[in-house]
Amino acid sequence: MGTQVKVPTLGESVTEATIGEWLKKPGEAVALDEPIASLETDKVAVEVPAPVAGTMGEYAVEVGTTVQVGAVIATIEDGSAAGETTQIKEREGTPPADKPQAAAGAQAAPSASTSDDDAGDHAATLSPSVRRAVLEHGIDPSAVRGTGKDGRLTKEDVLAAAKAKESAPAPSIQAQAPAPAPAPSSAASGERRTERVKMTRLRQTIARRLKGAQEEAALLTTFNDCDMSAVIAAREAYKDVFAKKHGIKLGFMSFFAKAACLALKDVPSANAQIEGDEIVYHDFVDISVAVSAPNGLVVPVVRNADAMSFAQIEQAIADFGQKAKAGTLTMDDMRGGTFTISNGGVFGSLMSTPIINPPQSAVLGLHRIEDRPVAVNGEVVIRPMMYLALSYDHRLIDGREAVTALKIIKDAIEDPMRLLIDL
Predict the structure, then answer these.
(1) Any idea of the CA torsion for 237, 241, 242, 246, to the nearest 10 degrees?
(2) Is 394 one of the catalytic residues?
(3) How many CA atoms lie within 13 A of 14 on its CB side?
(4) Which of 222, 227, 326, 341 has the most crowded CB, counting CB atoms within 10 A?
(5) Residue 416, H or E segment
(6) Is 122 a catalytic site residue?
């Protein structure tokens, strides 16, 4: 009997998860602590490590099954390293060392067999969203270099490959090798298709929390516009020196994070939350930064942002972005947060009304920068402008306080010197 693989402890108050994908197939060699499965929880994806080295046994549950903490999901069979090596070589078409090679010309066969196995491995470890993108765009996953954890493909990798494929010049008729005519696609024949895909646990949680925020909180949004000229000039003047000294690029998020800390210090209700019939005020600022991940929007927390430097904030956000793309964010990365910043401008959004991240009471929405005519000292000039939106829970934050907080952020961005002298 092999060693049982059980669902590990997933974090505080998390008791169940869904099998997102299997990273190892039955019969494959498994090293100690090597990830063999990915679990989707309400917040993040968690990889299940192998408790022992051996050979992957049979799955006890299928992809999409909800499992409890401690449940058995698979087994790992014991096997000697030599036996495992032999099995791997035989699957790849390579004869063991004690079997002589046939002829030199027959060496091409193992190479072809290996590539076929690699393609199968790619298909077996694709997440549902990546698999759909592969099918939709007709991309060969074995021909795309993955940028995710352990070289796995992400949806962004497939979309980039599809874009490159579309922009590549079509080969000439003379250069095309004869091939059987492909079967007509449903799109070519005019057939209309539908597809049903079960929502991931993360997407279900996002939907439930956002709807809950709308139903419970008294949501209201106040807007302002912001001249980005001073921040853009500061970045242009110091970006090279900043990157050389700190090893990270100087972005806009650090300016807005520091400006938000300034505003929350003067308007503490925007950094507070309601618990029952009490208001909980915080003397620190933990900023949740909305980050787009392959499975949906996640909000890792930059803790004690009010005590951090620009470089530390930029480094923290960059690290979270890389972890989100690789699917390695942890429960601790997501826990807590007193205020949220969401940047829809990176996707081209001009204006939006963001929804608060419960139990927080306010969220700052950033948008794209575009040149617009504005009046300055009685003259119409063109300036790089951004619309700012502050959504807040009107049960706790009055309109005057919300407008004041947003005005402080606007003034700090338009005159970054305020960030240095605490105005």
Answers:
(1) 180
(2) yes
(3) 26
(4) 341
(5) none
(6) no
User: Active site residue: 33, 118, 332, 398, which one?
Assistant: 398
Judged by DSSP in three states, 381 sits in strand
Q: Which of 118, 240, 394, 415 is catalytic?
A: 394
pLDDT in tens, 203-220: 777 788 888 888 888 999
CB neighbours of residue 192 within 10 Å? 6
Backbone angles phi, psi at 253, to 5 degrees: -60, -35
Which domains, and CATH codes, for the chain?
A: 1-91 (2.40.50.100), 99-167 (4.10.320.10), 218-421 (3.30.559.10)
Q: Give residue-wise pLDDT tens across range 260-286.
A: 999 999 999 999 999 989 999 999 999
Provide the strand spans (E) within 42-119.
45-49, 54-59, 66-68, 72-77
Q: Identify the pLDDT of residue 187.
A: 53
Reply yes or no on whether the pLDDT at 11 is more than 70. Answer: no
Please report the pLDDT score of residue 369 as a whole number: 95
User: Vertex 20, ends 320 and 144: CA angle to 5°?
Assistant: 70
Q: Where are the alpha helices (DSSP H) in 250-347?
A: 252-266, 310-326, 331-334
Phi first, then psi, for residue 422 (nearest 5°) are: 60, 60
For 266, the 3-state DSSP assignment is helix
The model's pTM: 0.62
Which two three-digit tokens encode residue 88?
A: 């791997």
